[in-house]
Amino acid sequence: MCYRNLTAMIFSFCLLCAAPAIAQQAELVIPLGNKSRIVYDLDRGQYNITWNGKIMIKEAYAAYQAARPGDSRKAGKAAYKVSDVHTSLGKARLYTISFEGDTSLQQLFYILRGNNSFITQLRLQHTAAAASMTPLATDSLLWNRPGDNRALYVPFDNDMWARYNAMPFAGATFKGSEVGAVYNVKDNAGLVMGSLEQDSWKTGFLLKGNETGRTAGVALLAGFTDSTITHDVVAHGKVLPVDGWISSPKMMIGFFADWREGMEIFAKENRQLHPRSIADWKGSTPMGWNSWGVLREKIRFDQAMKVVDFFADSLKGFRTADHTLFIDLDAFWDNMTPGGIDGDVSKLSEFVAHCKQKGLKPGIYWTPFADWGKSDRKVEGAAGYSYKETWTTQNGRMLDIDGGRAMDPTHPATQQRIVHTINRMRSLGFEMIKIDFLGHGAQESDRFSDPAVTTGMQAFKKGMHFLDSVLGNKMLVYAAISPNLATARYVHVRRIACDAFSSLDNTEYTMNSTGYGWWQSYLYDYVDADHIVFASESDGVNRARLAAAVVTGSIITGDDFSTPGKWTWTARKLLQNRDLLALAAKGKSFRPLLANTGNRGVEQLYRQDGGRLYIALFNYSTTEQSMTIPAKLLGNGKNIRWKIKELFSGDTRLLNGQKQLSVPPADACIFEISREK
User: Which of 219, 375, 462, 610 could bridge across to 137 with cysteines, CB 3.0–4.6 Å?
Assistant: First the structure.
């Protein structure tokens, strides 16, 4: 569907549109920082945002859909009050805008610091329910910087091999999830806008560009669903009042000299606003092995035991800083347990004991909100309930995603099943759990078992908090397929992308998510690149597979190490490289150095750490690629001699005057650059 402007796009989500032009008579000026401010027109109910002396957003307004639609431009003359408040993010100056013609509506602006960003939020009182709330919408985002400008699409989750897309700003039109950015590739100046809260609402970042590449419409819409992006085939659930008020999420809007810093600030603020449901991970950066890489649905007990032996006896140099590894049984571990978790679990007990005897930590897999049987049978651990009673419905139909049927996280049987299964796994001695298909618990529904829950995100919050309470901080919790932002407070580690195996295409896919989603390492304790599989690929492709893990933040392997092959030789060589392990142990993702690859994997990334500069280069092509190190990364000091070490080969040299780096075809390199002493 094509829209002439953003106003028409918002109308398609049932919001009110056009408002008559009224002459400006009064304004409120809200300072943001150096030559930056919000100017709110109190007569017209709209505002401009100036950054470094230039208007960047013009005639922005607020809108909502409740029993009737509302629009700040039709809400009558506005008044305001100013107060100093304490928030989870620190002290803030709060500007509260209210309206004579719509006394139910308030818009809040929180000003926390002079970094050209602010937080805004809508509130409604005397309102029974709200279907959507939009604190910012405009047809005039003015982005007229020379050169290559990009608009970043962010997916809702990492399911179905979803990709990020840094598309050219000219003509860019998309509906992203929770957060988005507009930036200049050369100088990295950019705008970041997104939702800091995912307790009740799913939020859309809606962009409508034009071919001139100078302006666009943009809106932050709380109440966003989409059959492809969020997997919902119904509208967002209506949000009910709490203490008399219905509130939108707090939305961060910021202009930054470096948009990458803006994305990291967004992630940090999101984490600060959400109290952790799970204790922070106190151990070292998790590393290990997962069975889904190769063994998958055919895994056998004897193979699992031999994998433990391989790591214990043949790969002693591959360990975390705590001198251990996690050995994780993925789906189909029940091949070893006749009767499932309630049957004969003696083989699982043997596996757990064998791991611990070898100094390793056993892990297991489960999907708390997805039913794979999809038949009307009894729910394990929930006497008197059948699975049919737990299934989520949309328009009266069961919701099947990825072959699994979505379960209502608020249903007593879903929760009793969680208690039963998790307690059984804990009693067997497992120290890690990989939880998967968590997005099944975030779907909208015709109704939830808990009548106080009316939206998918509320159900997700309730289900995940309950799951954490049963886990009791006794296991490392690793999330696989799951919502990108909303999962953060409930787990320790999250996989950045969907399944990835051995090919170079798999590395390229993963590096699309890491390259444009690196900022999530500030949301989670750790993010992970999924199991890296070496198989019988070329040496260069295998270096790229491992490099993808290192620059993402942790290392989980996935080959069939129960039998010898090129993969075992590769593992002995690559997974015991001390330089690479030391870098991975730091547990933080690299930033994109050049973020211009559209929906493809990022090729150049970097990280600065302890006076050292690390640059990772990926080459997905069949010809050698090269780049020049940006001078600003090395600083402006004179007579400094730089030493450069390539971490896979160990080759060390002095950096030449041209500061050129190169990477062979179908390969990757990681360079460590430091001052020569």
Answer: 219
Q: Element (H or E) spanning 494, and its range?
A: strand 493-495
In sequence order, the β-bridge partners of residue 64 are 70, 133
CB half-sphere exposure, 42, CA atoms < 13 A: 16
Task: For 567-601, write each residue's pLDDT tens digit.
Answer: 999 999 999 999 999 999 999 999 999 999 999 99
CA quadruple 151, 152, 156, 159: dihedral sign: positive
Q: Which of the four pLDDT bands, split at 50, 70 and 90, describes residue 7?
A: low
Going by C-beta distance under 8 Å and a sequence separation of 6 or more, which residues neighbour residue 274? 197, 488, 489
Q: Minimal CA–CA distance to 60: which of 46, 75, 42?
A: 46
Amino acid (one-letter) located at 226: D
Helices (H), 472-607: 504-517, 539-552, 566-574, 578-584
343: exposed, middle or buried (C-beta count within 10 Å: 0-12, 13-18, 19+)?
exposed
Q: What is the pLDDT of residue 641?
A: 87
Residue 353 is encoded by which pair of tokens? 């004991």
Alpha-carbon gap, residue 51 to 53, rounded angstroms: 5
| Token code pair at residue 596 | 């211009």
- Residue in this structure with the two tokens 């080959």, named with its chain if needed: 559
Give the Å distances, CA to CA, from 42 to 54, 83, 467, 668: 21, 18, 47, 56
Adjacency order of strands within the sheet including 432-435: 526-528, 493-495, 476-479, 432-435, 361-366, 326-328, 287-290, 555-557
**Length of the chain, in residues:** 677
Q: Which residue type sits at 654? A: L
pTM of the predicted model as reported, rounded to 2 decimal places: 0.95
Region of 356 please: left (phi>0), alpha (psi -120 to 50) or beta. alpha
293: helix, strand or coil: helix
Q: What is the largest CA-CA distance in the chain?
A: 79
Query: Residue 54 and residue 43: Cα distance in Å, rounded?
Result: 22
462: left (phi over 0), alpha (psi -120 to 50) or beta: alpha
Asked whether residue 163 carries a pLDDT value surpassing 70, the answer given is yes
Please report which helix (H) or strand (E) contains residue 352, including its range.
helix 346-357
Q: Do residues 360 and 311 touch, judged by C-beta distance below 8 A?
A: yes
Q: Specify the 3-state DSSP secondary structure of 342.
A: helix
Lookup result for tokens 């996280």 = 409
Partner residues linked to 39 by β-bridges? 29, 48
CA dist., res. 551 & res. 584, Å (int): 7
For residue 5, pLDDT beyond 80 = no
Range with lowest mean pLDDT among 102-116, 422-436, 526-540:
102-116
- Give 242's DSSP letter: B
Q: What is the 3-state secondary structure (H, E, C) of 122-180?
A: EEEECCCCECEEEEEEEEEEECCCCCCEEEEECCCECCCCCCCEEEECCCCEEEEECEE
Contact 390, 405 (CB under 8 A): no
Contact 248, 133 (CB under 8 A): yes
According to the model, what pLDDT value does residue 635 have?
A: 80
- The conformation of residue 17, written as its DSSP 8-state character, comes to -
DSSP state of 664: -
| Three-state SS letters, 394-419 | ECCEECEECCEEEECCCCHHHHHHHH
Backbone angles phi, psi at 323, to 5 degrees: 65, 40
Would you say residue 677 has pLDDT above 80? no
CB 531 within 8 A of CB 290: yes
pLDDT digits (tens, 9 = 90+) for 340-380: 999 999 999 999 999 999 999 999 999 999 999 988 899 99
| Distance separating alpha carbons of residues 381 and 151, to the nearest angstrom | 48
